[in-house]
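User: Predict the complex.
Assistant: Input components as received:
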Amino acid sequence: MGSLGVVVKTLPVRLDAADLVVFQRDMEVALLSDSPHVVLDLSPVKYLGSAGIEFLLECLSRIVRRDGDMKLAAISPESAALLSLTRVERFFEIFRTVEDAVNSFDTFAAENDRFAEPWNAFRAAAKDGTVTTD
Amino acid sequence: MRLGSVLYVKRSVGEGLPSQEALPTELPSDLATALISLSPQPAALLEVLGEPVLHRVVEVLRRGQVETIFLVVDEHFRNHQAIRSLTAQRVHILSGPAQVLPSMVETAVKRCADLGSQNVIVMDTSAYLELDVNDFVQEHHKAGQKITVAYDEGGPLHTAMVNGADGDIAATWMQRSFIYPQHTARYQHRAYVNRLQTAQDLRKLAKDALQHRCRIRPNGDELQPGVWVANTAHIHPSARLTGPAYLGPNSRLRSGVMVADCSTIERNCIVERGTLVNDSTILSGTYVGVCLDLAHAVVHQNCLMDVQRNVGIEMADSLIGATSASRKNLVPGLWATVASMSGDSLRGVRSKFRSLLPKSDPAAAVVPGRIAYSPAKSWSSLKSFSSTDSTGI
């Protein structure tokens, strides 16, 4: 568990249909909470099949519907290649380490210059005290 | 002067040779993208722009006026189509177990001599090199040694020239590639060479051929400058090829496929609707699924090698596989999930996705089901394309 109630879950080595059943039960608690903040640690993942990608999308979908957010961390080059192949990497925020992913929940996304307005406006407002972050 | 050649095809790098010392030292340090992981067959039997590498090597030798060619091949591959078709090109085939390949090479050299060849080029076909045969012959005669071995700046090239009577020398050289017998001369090879050890090497060979950096020419018709298509290939009217590119015999591009940036698709492949193929090689008999983004990769049936990330992946589901495999459902559940997430009932999810993307990214507006290109647009804007088919996704 990280700051701001961030839940960190480590995925199993293989993300195919059989191995996902157990992990899905483990995720249910996080998926049913209000505004869940979840970081999935993919560092052990050696095989990310289409069932695994589908699972990630479904988790993201359910978390966002509960006004939460889910981020991925420590993706192996094999998993990155598969996410790129299936064009779903654009749906996720991906960080190199779990710590970076957890810390990203403490700051606005506008820390990253890729993101345009209105995040920059929020950042500016937070700095001058017009808007509070909690 | 009459020339002969003995080519040999062995099962994989290092196998079939009796001596441990015979293991080549140029194995790639990272075997993740080694070609032996991509395909169990030797690199010489893989097709590049419609012809096996082995046929390309024979072409090089014929251009150099080599009259007699023997092919010594591991019996495991004797019935491979690329081997059988060489008999029509007057290539003599000898096959046997891997352990006896060296003695078969010796026999083949002697048979070349019996047929009138004074000098014989012995060549391991695991690499592709455009040998300057005349120059090689002259250097061999100038050196006056029993065997002349070809080198380049990367090291020995597993290619040597012997006199017709010295088949035993050739067999010894083949068995102990890095411990040469006495009376060995060196020949500095300066022309094109590709060692074909990794997926990156294979990708480079395809690109070099399309960009005329070597003498390989595509097997097909040039429909537009730089776009080569075999006459039995099928292209859906909405598919696009941007040169340089190659599409092989009996291959099919389904609706909305985009192929660009020196991509090559060999024979008997299927590329499903909406897929982008960018700077990639799809080897024979490969199926590539719906709405994928294949970039900087070499694919052979269910094995994908990302040459940029330097990783190899074996696919266990229907995203990529063999064209011969049956597919009851061409649309994996993955795309059904993506499609359902883009429906109106999940507006919050969609806006979340959009907010993650920089405004300049054209993909920010893409949802499956609508075409987003016109033929006049450039490749970079066409990357936002998605499948035209509204059914099945």
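Chain A has a mean pLDDT of 80.
Let me know if you want any component modeled separately.
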